[in-house]
Structures are given as C-alpha cells and as structure tokens.
C-alpha cells in the first residue's frame, strides 16, 4: 500500500504545525532525491478505475442474475447485488429483500479490498521482492478490474498472469493481449458483453484509456 507523505498536519510541509519556521531551503538528501523520482507501487484501485467499475457493473439494489441481469426472487448460482457482489447461498436471507446504497458501497469496499490484496499477493508470489513494482497505476487498475470480474482463482491461475510474471512462459497465446482477450466465454459461449469488457480493460492496461466518460 502507498502511504501519503506530507499534508497540512505534517511539520515538514507546514512549519506552523510544529511552531517553527524554516529559515532556508530544506537540504535534499540522497533518499529525498530517490523518493522524488521513484513512485511507490500501486496498491489500490484508483478513483478512475473505481468509477469505471461502477459504470461497467451498475449498482443494483435488488438481487439479479449476473449474466442476464434478470431480477431473481430465490437464490440461484450467479445471484448478484450491489456493484457486482456475488451472493452465496448462505447469504441469501440477508439480501433477498434488497439493500440500500450505503450497504452497496460497503460491499464494494470489502470486495475491492479482497481483490486488490489478492492481485498484490499473486504478483508478489511470482515476482518476489518485486510484486507490483514496475506497474503503472492504470496497469494495476486493469488487473484489478479483470480479477474482479473473472474471480481471483481464475485470475491467479491464468496464462495472462503467468506471462506477466515471466514473459518466457509458454502458453497457448502469442501475446499478453491475446491472453487477456481470451476471457470472453461464459457457459462455453462467447459473450459480446465480455468481449467489449475485455477490450476496454486492455485499453486501460495498454494505454491508460478509461473512456471519455470516466
């Protein structure tokens, strides 16, 4: 996780907070110089990534079926509520009568934290001492968005992640893009909605393009 340094309560940034006044420029140490050039690795979905996710998933306050979007009135596999929150069978009584926006927001925070940590753990496992370092924020966003949609287990065991961790890995795909776009099937069929979603995620990863409305 990145830790924000500085701010109105930081004596180094606001002399009045410590009751002292600077009399000259602050000396620049080697570590200060390095920190100025090297950004911390991403560890959370950015606000733009979050807006993209909400736009892609929608926010439904009554249960619905994930693939079709049809409302449901008893538990089924793929039961979903809020912003893409999958409902397990044991949870159905909690969600059967719907939720409010505050509850939907709380579910999204919990789900995102789980996915963010899962992506970081997977990168750390295959790139010890490297982890997410070397990735730009938009690339990390795209990985989180993909994992959110296909699930952490599928993400972690994917050819895409294997290739990301080691470009020499032999997979059925010639490029990382092909491995990414391959996640377009549901029930053994190509789903146009998933094709569009994968293409948009790839644009985020490759170009940092979240679309005109984000």
What order do the helices and strands come in, and which of them pair?
Elements lengths: L29 H8 L9 H11 L2 E6 L13 E4 L2 E2 L5 H4 L5 H26 L10 H14 L1 H5 L2 H7 L10 H6 L3 E2 L2 E2 L1 H16 L7
Antiparallel strand pairs: 1-2, 2-3, 4-5
Helix pairs in contact: 4-5, 5-9
List descriptors:
214 residues; mainly alpha; three-stranded antiparallel sheet; two-stranded antiparallel ribbon; 9 helices; 5 strands; disordered N terminus
Describe the overall structure.
The chain is mainly alpha-helical. Helix content is 45%, strand content 7%. It has a three-stranded antiparallel β-sheet with strand order 1-2-3. It has a two-stranded antiparallel sheet with strand order 4-5. Strand 2 and strand 3 form a beta hairpin. The longest helix has 26 residues. The N terminus is likely disordered.
């Amino acid at each position: 996780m990145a830790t924000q340094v500085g701010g109105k309560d930081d004596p180094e940034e606001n002399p009045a907070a410590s009751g002292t006044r600077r009399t000259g420029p602050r000396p620049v140490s080697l570590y200060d110089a390095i920190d100025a050039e090297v950004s911390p690795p991403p560890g959370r979905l950015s606000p733009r990534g979050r807006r993209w996710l909400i736009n892609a998933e929608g926010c439904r306050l009554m249960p619905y079926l994930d693939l079709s979007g049809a409302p449901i009135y008893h538990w089924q596999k793929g039961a979903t509520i809020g912003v893409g929150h999958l409902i397990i069978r044991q949870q159905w009584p909690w969600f059967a009568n719907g939720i409010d926006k505050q509850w939907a927001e709380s579910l999204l925070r919990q789900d995102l934290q789980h996915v963010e940590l899962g992506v970081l753990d997977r990168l750390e496992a295959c790139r010890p001492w490297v982890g997410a370092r070397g990735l730009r924020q938009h690339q990390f966003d795209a990985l989180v968005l993909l994992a959110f949609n296909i699930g952490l287990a599928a993400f972690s065991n994917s050819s895409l992640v294997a290739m990301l961790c080691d470009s020499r890995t032999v997979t059925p795909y010639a490029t990382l893009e092909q491995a990414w776009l391959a996640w377009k099937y549901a029930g053994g069929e190509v789903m146009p909605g998933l094709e569009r979603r994968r293409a948009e995620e790839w644009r985020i990863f490759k170009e940092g393009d979240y679309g005109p409305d984000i």
